[in-house]
Fold:
Amino acid sequence: MDSIIVTGNGPLAGQVPIAGAKNACLTLMPATLLSEEPLTLTNAPRLSDIATMTALLQSLGAEVTSMQGGQVLAMSSHALDNHVADYEIVRKMRASNLVLGPLLARLGHAVVSLPGGCAIGARPMDLHIAALEALGAEIELKEGYLHAVARGGLKGAVHEMRFASVGATENAMMAATLAKGTTVLKNVAREPEIVDLATCLRRMGAQIEGDGSSEIIIEGVDRLHGATHPVVTDRIELGTYMLAPAICGGEVECLGGRADLLGAFCERLDSAGITVSETEKGLKVSRRNGRVSAVDVTTEPFPGFPTDLQAQMMALMCTAEGTSVLQEKIFENRFMHAPELIRMGADIEVQGGTARVRGVERLKGAPVMATDLRASVSLILAGLAAEGETIVNRVYHLDRGYERVEEKLSALGARIERVSGQ
Ligand code: UD1
Structure:
């Protein structure tokens, strides 16, 4: 298994290109199942999660061709010949459940494995099921698989979600595009990936309004057509690279970055003493002076502070002046990076969903273990600020969500290399 070795090396400088969003791409790809005509995505990120979704769509009979080194995905679902999303693929990646709504809408039936346990919490699918049942689907759990049928097709309905789940909103939106009549989805997620999905579906002929607000209205159409759509910038990769100069000093321009994608994140950075300015090409980030100040963070649905940037923010807070309190409100078990950061000399106390971080002057390099995608990159960020060498093991998590991280950070002056495992 590969490892990444980082050696703390002072300030960073330069430009870093930000890729298309993994999470947007993982919901845009299943949208191909809604139409017989081709859907082409540009600005796709080159990640192992995208390869997993490609394999899943191909297993259903869709054609997926990766072009221009993976940045363009040409897809066609003119002849679907399978409606079963197999456990062997779904267990690798929870986002596989995003084929449920489109398959149901297009074919009238779908069988999708439940994803099973996930390192960062239970992550059930009750919200997806409730939304699809409101549209007239009958869903039963048999032998670990959700069996969904829409006898006579899906029908528009008014449905209010118990919680603004990103995935459930996406599944419901895709299903409702081909339902008969009007669907009103209330208390939905407002994340930029939802707006990107709605934009793509509109390009395919769907009638959707209200995306980006907490109520989405969809007028069902008989069929959707082909389209070409550029994937929105990855706000989580963007936030991660913004934290690199914040943590070890310097000035970095994130190409393609947009402040409107970041919600509360920019305001928290400003309070910590980080300057973010808009440029023609993106966002420029630098640390104002000395150590950053401790700030408190509570993760919330968009536009609140994103849970997917909590681990990276904790890495920054490890060397801040003062004590910061980080509260995780989205996932119940998302502090697995804390014990690894403690091995690097951080002073962190975790109690339930709250972590109290007392800033220390300097972290010290150590061998550490990546436990999930965002935790892995937080350890790399901590390594950039640490004295000596940090070896991050089990980096396969990282390849799920960050393309060429060692190349991108090296280009900014970081000392970082990947070592192939036996
Ligand atoms: C998506 C993102 C993930 C991000 C998360 C929250 C993708 C591929 N993944 O995940 O990176 O961390 O949003 O911003 O886009 N829940 C239920 N029942 C359900 C569904 C969810 O209780 O049916 C709970 C989950 O356990 C969790 C919370 O709702 O505690 C948020 O989950 P959700 O918004 O659905 O996240 P995902 O769509 O899985």
